[in-house]
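Narrative progress, year one. The postdoctoral researcher (J.K.) led the effort to move from monomer predictions toward full complexes, under supervision of the PI. The following entry was the first complex the group processed end to end, covering 1219 residues in total.
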Amino acid sequence: MHAEVRPVDSAGSEPGQAGQAEEPPVLELRHAVKSFGAVRALTDGSVELRAGQVHALLGENGAGKSTLVKILAGVHQPDSGTLAVGGREVSLPGPAAAREAGIAVIYQEPTLFPDLTVAENLFVGRQPLTSGRRVDRRTMNAEAAALFQRLGVPLAAARPARGLSIADQQLVEIGKALSTDARVIVMDEPTAALSAAEVDRLFEVTRTLRDQGAAVLFISHRLEEVFAICSRVTVMRDGGHVLTSDLAGLTAQDLVRAMVGRELAERPPEAPGAPPGEPVLSVRRLTREGVFTDISLTVRAGEIVALAGLVGSGRSEVARAVFGIDRYDAGQVTVHGQRLKKASPVSAMAAGIGFVPEDRRQQGLVMDMSVQQNVALASLAALRRGGLIRASAERAMATDWAARLKIRYGRLTDPVSLLSGGNQQKVVLAKWLGRKPRVLIVDEPTRGIDVGTKAEVHHLLTGLARDGVGVLMISSELPEVLGVSDRVLVMREGALVAEFSHADASAEAVMSAAMGQAGVGGPAGVGGPAGVGGPAGVGG
Amino acid sequence: MADLTDRLRPALRWEAGLAVVVILILVVGSASSPQFLTGNNLFNLGLSNGEIAIMTLPMTLIVISGEIDLSVASILGMSSALLGYLWSKGWPMPAIFAFVAVVGLAAGALNGLLVTRLRLPSLAVTIGTLALYRGIATIVLGPNTVSSFPAGYTNLGVNAVPFTGGDMTWSTLIFIVLAVVFGVVLHATPLGRSIYAMGASTEAAQFAGIRVKRIKTALFMLSGLICALAGVLWTFRLDTAVQNNGLGLELSVVAIVLLAGVSIFGGKGSVIGVVLAVLAFAGIQNALLLTSFNQEATGIVTGALLLASVFLPTVFLPQVGRLIRRRGHP
Amino acid sequence: MATLPGRGLRADRGGDAGLAERVFRIRESGIVAVLVVFVAVTTLVRPRFLDASNIQFVLVDTSAFALLALGETMVVISRNVDLSIGSVVGLSAYLSASLFADHPGIAIPVVFLAGLGIGLACGIANGVMVAGGRVPSLVVTLATLYIIRGIDILIVGGNEVDASALPNAFIDIPKDTIGGIPDLAIAVALVIAIGAYYLRSYRSGRDLYAIGSNPGAARLAGLPVGRRVLVAFAASGAIAGVAGVLWASQYPTINSTAGNGYELQVVSAVVVGGVAIFGGSGTATGAALGALLLTTINSALYVLGISSFWDQAIWGFLLLVAIALDQTITERLTRALRTMNQGKRSRHG
């Protein structure tokens, strides 16, 4: 049975809601509208959350999800529409009001205070006080420790927050939500930067929260996770909600169709299959103390090599070392037969390597600079004549690549921060493709990008390979790893542990190698449509 | 054509406002004193502000790149002290020039290395080197004063450049030349674009193959060299080398750069703005001087201008911007 | 609730807990250690360094300085900086001196209050602009440095107030001692202890650390950022006002140059004392120790017969060493904390 793709009023008028119609929903947002100047970010934002449920929110970039979240968080106020918490209508003039209403938001990049301890982070602004109105450190630490026990996470309450992994930072945020007795917990793409084991732990914690009666709103681009943890879903498109339904009976296809409004290929295109050419990138015994050991790999012209593994296995570090941003202690990097003498981006670029980094906003783009300037940033020398940058050449380059990659922007001189995530990633790609690299290293090329643009990027990569470029792709998304590459290399804890040809690579094989266990059954992160669950207890 | 206005638009907002301020100062100045726009007066303006003006140029590049250099006045003082000391020991002037230039470069190099290699915040580092270099100046000269430099050199400090009708000081000429060079480099060369990029996002600049550390160190060294030059000019103008030459000037230099619309956070600013800001600063000082206002209290006006420079963009100029935009799109 | 066998449920307090605290204590003991070394070496060469009179001198000299360091610390912890304190000291010094000169019978506490009031007004002005306008404090306090100094110059004109115009009771303030320790030093130590206690144990004090550690997160967390920053600047200004009055009691003449350049010395003391220039960490005690260290070094150099011309260079050098040291410590600490994560993670696969 498929749910129909049509706008559905979320006030309980669809099937499958038996048994829950008596209690008012914990949170109900109806027909929220929000414009920023001339831009209508939200035309019909509606979502209904019930206690003890994990509810998914899906939609492409620009669909209005983040605006909706910000309204729930009290950061923005809707132009019209109503928000009711626990049956009573509320208005949230600011984040403090949202917190008081019992709404907690866990952002993708948690914002902690690195100089304060974990316990202080949990209780910032509302530390328990002694009778003399002084901060009661002992109680604070004890309560924090108890909280983490409840969540089942071994975090030390009195350590500084500095140096915590993103996964742990999220747990602190969740702890904060718990300690404020939040009834609604919104998780905004929480798994984007987590390894599979950390995702499992997060899901455990989420189930605990759910079982304790919280209403969880779970936003993600990864459909397999949505099916693993959520029971209901709301899909948004172009600023409005288009589908709200139980997840049971829906397939990934249904969801994608609702998000995009058209059919899309379920899996990324098959790898080209043409025989690869000469080796363009050759890494021999690359080592960096404590980070990665003895990495040897080859990428041939026309080949896409995927580098898979858990987050923290050292893949990005290897890539950065190859590109010269990070140093290495031993080994060598050879491009097209030329040995790279020292680790520096300049020599890597001169040899023909391009590098699309993991962090688009901090590393891939200068957010304040214009689209045009970002596209030109790695090609300034080439655009030069008589020492000066030729403005017309720069503009031509930007226009040309924007057309080729179908980048959607207002004006070339707009700051690149105005573009959506997918288009921003295309700008990064344009920057490197403009240099006609022989080797392109891409680190998480489609992270945080909507489904439509994702497909375009995959097409782009396979097209590049067809043109003879050697592509080294680091990815944590198995469908991408399996679908786009000719070969899959797997890293674990700083070492290369497996290599699979396209034919031999399977989700189970790659995951086993990545986790170092044999025969692990379907943990979250394995690709595929409905029915693949994350069983409790895995990844302990 | 549309693209040209697009490129100029962000610059238009701040520099346009600043230009208006300069014009206002000119009007008010000449209204309150008939001497304001005379060649003689302009010459004196150049004399008293020349070295400060010169020092603002490398400071601009440093601030746009995301750092700051508070040791500029101390490098000026150190170079002045060395000039006096070596002269009193009988060194020939060309050798002194070379030595002072090298010391200036070295002082800048120390700043640059501490900031780029040890990754220390430039605000704190240059507060330290401000004390260190001024301290070196004090050690070198002690309480002494060296004067009576040969006329051939002191003339450089006080005479007009030939063929300019007696109105332009050497320091003004040097400022103009440097301003043009810096302007071209900053706005039209890959190096300039790189400086903007690293100020806006150090990481992204590194990932694009920009040699951030090397460029920042070079900028600090350039600042050191130019401040050493300013120290020489200052000494010759006053015909005095003493350890407290230029004491406290760094604040004026920073004030002018901020007034010019250069963002303290890096990544934004222009040389045109700096030139306008120098004009505004000098103009105000001069107008107040001619109207017998207590010279040392001109700081009030500098301070007020500085405050305006940070508060206007958040209030006043967006309105102006909206006006311009409406005109541009019928 | 699902139980999760096999995980270490006991939150690991021992090892990590001490770590943060230990690092801070190390920093402060470092300053004390350097202090002790300096004093020891100097006394060996010139035993009169530890004479009662010299100790009193150093303590008195440190008093106003350490007081200013307290105010500046509060501001710097919140990721701001107050460059106007030198000008405030100058203005307050002159105005209090002229109060005495023009109103001979005036009570001393009244003058202190007046000085405090002036400083408070300046501080509030700074705070309103920084907090309300969300404008960089470097720029704002640079501007007020100029403006306040300019106002001071206008008021002072070419005048100066001579110490002889000041009542004896006032001039004696730096000289009075209890059991060999100057009153002033004791009073200032008390104030600093209160300040340190506030920063460590009260919510509003802890909020300042949060604001300095991550201003955006502080706002998101609903902390009253504007109010806290305003209070920090107000306190810094008020303290500078009081320090100005103290200045008047210690110097033979007061003119328009009083307090010139003081702000950078105070910032140096604060940084040497372990307060991070980017905010979020450091203690008032450390800053006061930093002030004490710098004054002691000055005195040591004098007693050792090293020309005072070396003072500034040595200050500058020390400041650079302190900054470099702090950076190294922070980096090592971060690395250690990160590998602690690694260790935990491998235990859980």
